[in-house]
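pasting for ref
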Amino acid sequence: MKIMEVAVAPASAVMELERAYLLQNYSRYPLVLKRGKGCWLYDAAGRRYLDLISGIGVNSLGHAHPRIVRVIREQAALLIHSSNLYYHEFQGPLAKRICETSGMQRVFFCNSGTEAVEAAIKMVRAHGRRIDPQKYEIIAFENSFHGRTMGALSITGQPKYREPFEPLLEGVRILSPCDDAALEAAVSSRTAGIFVEPIQGEGGIYPMAGAWLRRLREMADRCNALLVFDEIQCGIGRPGVWHAYQLHEPPVLPDIVTLAKPMAAGLPLGAVACNEKAASTIAPGMHGTTFGGGALACRVALEFYAIVEELLPQIRRVGEYFFAGLRELQGQFSFIREVRGAGLMIGVELDFPCKHLVNEGIRHGLLFNVTHEKVIRMLPPYILTEKEVDRALGGLRKVLRNARPVSAA
C-alpha cells in the first residue's frame, strides 16, 4: 500500500489553509517551521532559528535527538497504545524513576499538564470530603497558571484567563503570593488543598522563596490539607535539579507534584506524583484516562530521564553562563528591570510591554516569547551550549538596541 504523500505548499498557502479551517484561538507568528536539529529550527524557506522556547518547554532535548529518534522508531514498530485495561512494560519503570527523583511514592499518568492539575484537584477534593463535606476549599495564588480546563482555570490567578468562562469551580481563594497575613486569614478547617508553582512560569518567571514554600507546608499540615506543587513548567531538570522545590535546603516536599511539559521530549505525557496520603484518596474507578501512559510515550520518557541525569550539570553550568550574560545586557539597557529564574528557565522583565519584540527576535534568528506582558521568556532545550548562548546574547543585543514601547514607535 502506497503511503499518502502530502504536497509541499508555500508558507503563505499553509497559513491561509489554517485561517480557513482551524478554530482561530491562536495568534500565531508568521513563521512556518519545517524541521529541527539540536537547538535549531528551520522554516519552509530553509532559514535557521535558535530555539529558545522549545515548544514552551516541551522539546527539552531539542529536535531530532538521536537517542529519542531511535527509541521512537523502535517502539512505534512494536506497540504504541494498548489502553490502561492491560499492563505494558514501561509504566512501572517510569513511575519508579519519577518517585526516585521526586521523593514521592505513587504516580498517575495522563496526557498533559492541565490533566495532571485536574487529577490533583480531584485528589484534594476527595481528601477533604473524606474528612468533612464542608472541607472543599482550595487556596491558589495571583499570577499563577495551572491550565485551561475548567478546574485548572478555577485555580489560575490571572483574570484574563478566567473571566471569559466564569462562573468557575466554587470554593477557590486566590491570594497574593508571599503574603503571610492573607494566608493566615484564608486557611481554615475548610481548606482541602493549597496549589503553588515553585517558579511561576506564565506569570512571569517568579521563583518562590524556600521560606514561603516551608510556610505553605506548615499551613497545609496545620489544617490537614494537601500541598500541591505545580512543576509542569519548572520541573524535571529545567531548574538544574530534578524539581524546583529541590533548589531549597532542606527541600520542601509536597503531597502532590504535577508534571508534564518536558517529560517525553516532545510527545504528550503528563503525570501526578504523590505520597501515600494523597494516593489513598483515589480508589479504582474514581479517575482514569484513555491515552495517558501509553507504551510509546512512557518508553520515550524513560530515555529522557536517562539523558537528563547526564545533562543536569550542563544545565546548571550553561544556565549560570546565560544569566551572567543577561545581567551584562541589563547593565547596558536601562529598561531591563530584572533578570530572574533558575537553570534554563529564564525571564527578562522590561519596563514596558514587549510582545512586539518577538517578531524582532524572529528577524534576528531567535525564537522566544513574551509572557505577563513585559517578560521575555526563554525555556531553551537542555542541550544548549555556551556557544549557542553567545549567539543568543548577540541576537538579543540587536533586538534590544532598537527596543521601544509600541506607543513610542
